[in-house]
Amino acid sequence: MAAAEALLEVRGLGMRFGGIVALDDVSFTARRGEITAVIGPNGAGKTTAFNCITGFYRPSAGSLQLTHADGRGFALAAMPGHLIARRARVARTFQNIRLFAGMTVLENLLVAQHVPLMAATGLGVLAILGLGRYRAAERHAIAKARLWLERTDLLARADDPAGALPYGAQRRLEIARAMCTDPVLLCLDEPAAGLNPRETAALDALLRGIRDEGCSLLLIEHDMGMVMRVSDHIIVLDHGRKLGDGTPAEIRADPRVIAAYLGEDEEDADHLAPADAP
Amino acid sequence: MSQRAPLLDAFLSALVALGLFAPMVGLETTVGVHGIVLVPRPLAVAALVGAVFVLRLAVRLWQARRPPAPAGAGAVRIGRAWAGMGRFLVPVLLAAALLMPWVASRATIDLGVLLLTYVMLGWGLNIVVGLAGLLDLGYVAFYAVGAYAYALIAENTGLGFWSCLPAAGALAALWGITLGFPVLRLRGDYLAIVTLAFGEIIRIVLLNWVSLTGGPNGIAGIPRPTLFGLRFTMTDDPGTFAGFFHLVPSPVQRQMFLYYIILALALLTNWVTLRLRRQPLGRVWEALREDEIACRSLGINITTTKLTAFAVGACFGGFAGAFFATRQGFISPESFTFMESATVLAIVVLGGMGSQLGVVLATLIMIGAPEMFRALADYRMLIFGLALVVMMVLRPRGLVTERKPSVTLGRGAAAIPAALIAEGHG
Ligand SMILES: Nc1ncnc2c1ncn2[C@@H]1O[C@H](COP(=O)(O)OP(=O)(O)O)[C@@H](O)[C@H]1O
Ligand SMILES: [Mg+2]
To answer: From ligand 2's centre to the CA of A191, what distance in Å?
Structure first.
């Protein structure tokens, strides 16, 4: 991806919880068509950064500028959370999986397409009477869901409750659900946590495929093998500050990064217990 | 230890029972020669305490003999049985509801109207509590708004029931939205308390705004519904039902008419709910009950979605209220106390939140049974309390706990067991 343009520009991002400084003057750029990884030890502020970008937290300082391919710009820090997903088209998954556990896999993917479906029901009224374009819209939504079920290898489980899926399948379903919103930027919070090596390899391929089809990714991950394999660009956070920024090769060679994170205990870094946050 | 634990436990239970029964049962007040005297009743206390001891011991020994079943296994089994029965229960109940007035006595038709009113209220509240997972303790407010809206519009404009019905529903929905705006930011207990207060506020306003509502005297002479303009009276003028069809006028005709109106309104509520459940709006209500944060990450506006649930639920409450007003011909704030909200909520919870069939079964139990066993009226609260305890132990999620998927790729997807379904926290 030569000379990719900026998709998300984070400038001077700060987030404070009372006395805790979770993020302090963090700046980076995620480019269109790339997988940008965010790494760092637990408590570094990675999830907090995601929560700021996706509107779950309002940053205490800084700006978040997202630019679509058609040139439309969005100042994410000033937008309500649901509009960030709806208009700016930023989708996300959660570190501790958040599926609609009592609904089926297919239902989960249809809820993700709620906004276009709702528009087709005439605000819910016409569809009750069986009028409007609803039938066609639903067929279209199910087709899209089926596509993502195939890509995440969940088609056989389509009618099972999401809460009954094994862990790895739940992680994949969350990605499928996020992709059903047609995002331009997909933020994944530790998608490989708890996966076995075979599942992680499949995830590699899935993420590369998503990137190659034009959706950029922001990826928080502790599995350094995976990060080095799939990322185009890596950002290192530590104690709320940015420690380094570069290609996988550069990051591997950066002495500060090695000291803070990679070098000390690569074994440990791979198996860090997930912290909780939304 | 394992040998003595049941004994010790039974002994402790007996001790608690002694503490409770000694003052409550152990002393009887009788009127003696010099005023009231206390007569001790040690035998009665001993019998009760002994019964508690033996029962507790029996329960513990029985538990010890059986290995503990995996949590909820029994519930799942019974749930399956219900789901299977549902397929045959629904047509039977529907046929019974349709045919009942032709064979039943007047008193039974009256009971049917009462039951159907609660079924309708239960179905309406089920949208808010069961589907969207919002705990609303003030549902009676919308029932009251519907009833007063119809009564006041009819009184002031001379319009009939059928013209006022949509207005009553719309006004209740409007109140639902008005209430929803400020309170839907609150979650869980806070939402419950504020909705409870709202229900009381509406009642107190109705009680005190005498110039509009007549205050405690209520509103009388509310017009009765007509069948395409035909009135139900005890004469046989051409403008009446009996006169038009050349029948002998009888009060049963009006009663049956009312019965079929509330049956139609209730079935309308059910039909709309079932349709909505299979469409984006209903599906997103359930998603909201499952996980609000995930909904927000998918671009769903949580506030408006909750408001739609409140508005639709309130609208059906309003319809039911208008029916109540036209059936009684008289309304006063006394009919809209918290007890009504609590009863309807109990129906929804007992039925199994989100289940339409559950609401019907729960209404039959909650409203039907006390009416049938009037002779036991003295023990009503006692039985009610016992039933609650038994429910909490056996089926804490209600009678019908499973959830049918709203859409499937393959055929015949299995129902989703209660253990996976969230109850909502807002
Ligand atoms: N809602 C919150 N309230 C208070 N402190 C928080 C909150 N969210 C995150 N933090 C704090 O911010 C820091 C960064 O957390 P987080 O972003 O979850 O780290 P990471 O995802 O990199 O492991 C931690 O010290 C955490 O305790
Ligand atoms: Mg984290």
So the answer is: 11
B111-166 pLDDT, tens digit per residue, is 889 999 999 999 999 999 888 888 888 899 999 999 999 999 888 887 788 888 89
For residue A111, give the 3-state DSSP assignment.
helix
Which helix or strand (DSSP H or E) is residue A245 part of?
strand A241-246
Statement: residue B76 has pLDDT above 60: no
CATH number for the domain formed by residue range(s) B94-375: 1.10.3470
Place of tokens 């909820």: B72
Q: Is the ipTM of this complex over 0.85?
A: yes
CB-count exposure of residue A103 (10 Å: 0-12, 13-18, 19+): buried
Backbone angles phi, psi at B108, to 5 degrees: -70, -40
Paired strand residues for B345 = none
Task: Please state which architecture CATH assigns to domain A1-89+183-278.
Answer: 3-Layer(aba) Sandwich (3.40)
Round the average pLDDT of chain B to a whole number and report it. Answer: 82
Judge whether A176 is closer than 8 Å to chain B, CB to CB: no
Pocket probe for ligand 1: among A20, A219, A241, A272, the residue whose CB has the most ligand atoms within 8 Å is A20
Q: What does the block give as tokens for B350?
A: 């007992």
- In the structure encoding, which two tokens stand for residue A96, read together? 């501790």
Residue B228, SS3 per DSSP:
coil
CA distance B19 to chain A (A): 45
Distance CA(B241)–CA(B168), nearest Å, equals 25
Nearest C-alpha neighbor of B251 from the set B109, B372, B151, B147 = B109
Partners of residue A114 in chain B, C-beta under 8 Å: 280, 283-284, 287, 298-300
Which tens digit of pLDDT belongs to each residue from B185-225?
A: 777 778 888 888 989 999 999 999 988 888 888 888 777 77
Please name which of B260, B254, B246 lies closest in space to residue B226, comparing C-alpha atoms.
B254
Q: Quick one: which of A138, A133, A85, A80 has its CA closest to A109?
A: A138
How far is residue A112's CA from residue A103's CA, in Å, rounded to a whole number? 12
Instruction: Give the angle A210-A213-A216 at the CA atoms, nearest 5°.
Output: 60
The model scores a pTM over 0.95:
no
Tens digit of each residue's pLDDT (9 = 90 or more) over B240-275? 766 666 666 677 777 888 899 899 999 999 999 998
**Cβ A232 vs Cβ A1: under 8 Å:** yes
CA A244 from centroid of its chain's CA atoms: 21
- Cβ contacts of residue B380 below 8 Å, gap of 6+? B370
| CA B355 – CA B79 distance, rounded (Å) | 12
Is-contact A127 A134, C-beta < 8 A?
yes
Report which of residues B73 and B152 the model is more confident about: B152
Angle at A242 between CA A240 and CA A248, to 5 degrees: 130
Write b or e for each residue in B116-146: b if 16 or more Cβ atoms lie within 10 A of its Cβ, otherwise e: bbbbbbbbbbbbbbbbbbbbbbbbbbbbbbb
Report whether B29 contacts B42 (CB < 8 A). no
CB A96 near ligand 1, within 6 Å:
no
Q: Which residue reads 């009788």 in tokens? A: B30
**E strands in chain A:** 6-17, 20-31, 35-39, 61-67, 73-75, 90-92, 185-189, 216-220, 233-238, 241-246
Rounded to whole angstroms, the Cα distance separating B2 from B46 reads 27
Residue ranges of chain A that CATH labels 3.40.50.300:
1-89+183-278
The one-character DSSP state at A153 is T
